[in-house]
Amino acid sequence: MATWIITGANRGLGLEFAKQLLADGHSVIAGVRQPEMMEFDHERMTVLRLDVASTTSVHEFAENVKLATQSIDVLVNNAGRMDGRWQSLEEVDPEVSLEVLNVNTIGPLRVSQALWPLLEGPNPTKIANISSLMGSIDDCMSGRSYAYRTSKTGLNMITKILAVEGKNKGISVTAYHPGWAKTDMGGERAPVPVSVSVQGLIGLINEQDDVRTGRFFEYTGDELPW
Ligand SMILES: NC(=O)c1ccc[n+]([C@@H]2O[C@H](COP(=O)([O-])OP(=O)(O)OC[C@H]3O[C@@H](n4cnc5c(N)ncnc54)[C@H](OP(=O)(O)O)[C@@H]3O)[C@@H](O)[C@H]2O)c1
Questions:
Q1: Which atom of ligand 1 is nearest to the CA of 14?
Q2: Is residue 129 scored above 90 in pLDDT?
Q3: Ligand 1: which of 81, 130, 180, 192 to mutate, most ligand atoms within 8 Å of CB?
Q4: What is the average pLDDT across 110-127?
Q5: Nearest-atom index, ligand 1, CA of 102
Q6: What's the pTM?
Q7: Residue 85's pLDDT band (boundaries 50, 70, 90)?
Q8: CA of 13 to the centre of ligand 1 (A)
Q9: CATH code of the domain containing 52
Q10: Scanning 4, 61, 167, 191, which has the fewest C-beta atoms within 10 Å of its C-beta?
Q11: Is residue 213, in this structure, part of any structural domain at all?
């Protein structure tokens, strides 16, 4: 059984990751902004404070992870935020855009950097970045959502760079689109149940290896264009 770290594990896809992984017998370290508000608990889950937008918080989180476990097998960079849906050029707020980039792009970079020493070692380990089809330049037909789209495009590039960095160190790094999933972010009209999205993602992450590193997949297994 493996040890997985899930960021943003208090609701939405992150919480579902924790629940399914625990049901499969794995151990989970849940990174959440407010551990005291976490309603779900489990004997194989450790809940630690984490704000991916803060370098200080990420460093404290990494220190606490080291106290909780000697090694990790999988890091899922799941925490993310919207920018206000489908904002046009007139509506986009540059200051909010910087916050979105901080959380969605630099957040996963911070966490990966801080936990990299725990991922290095003799056994293959994995980073799974929860991106979005909205970040695909090839797929950008409807425009809008400047900040969110750009934040995920940036995350895709970070995935590629980390994959190169991890190639000779046994660390695979892959980007995933969870589908339009029914969470607070996805909204009520989203067609993909959270359980289906996460089941697909876990299956793909289990298969993640040095062939699939540096690539971009949908939860269904289809490969996506950058
Ligand atoms: N749902 C979809 O249709 C969809 C589609 C494509 C991609 N995604 C991606 O999937 C991931 C999960 O989304 P979701 O649908 O589960 O969204 P969600 O229900 O809105 O949950 C977002 C999670 O991220 C956490 N978070 C936000 N900012 C954070 C920060 N600074 N530090 C730590 N945690 C933070 C939230 O914590 P708080 O409770 O503290 O805010 C929450 O746990 C995101 O990266 C999102 O971009 C979702």
A1: 16
A2: yes
A3: 81
A4: 96
A5: 31
A6: 0.99
A7: confident
A8: 7
A9: 3.40.50.720
A10: 191
A11: yes
**CA proximity to 171, closest of 162, 179, 180, 161:** 162
Mean pLDDT, range 212-224, rounded to an integer: 98
Question: What CA–CA distance (Å, rounded) separates 95 from 105?
Answer: 15
Write the pLDDT tens digit of every residue in 3-48: 999 999 999 999 999 999 999 999 999 999 999 999 999 999 999 9
Beta carbon of 178 within 6 Å of any ligand 1 atom: yes
Question: Per the domain annotation, does 193 fall within a domain?
Answer: yes
Report yes or no on 183 lying in a domain: yes
- Is residue 226 domain-resident? no
Sheet holding 3-7, edge to edge: 45-49, 27-32, 3-7, 74-77, 125-130, 171-177, 216-218
pLDDT in tens, 61-79: 999 999 999 899 999 999 9
Distance (Å, whole) CA 124 – CA 140:
34
10 ligand 1 Cβ < 6 A:
yes
Given this model, what pLDDT does residue 220 score? Answer: 98
Cα 168 to middle of ligand 1, angstroms: 31
The rounded Å distance from CA 28 to ligand 1 centre is 17
Domain that holds residue 71: 3-218
Q: How far is the CA of 82 from the centre of ligand 1 (A)?
A: 8
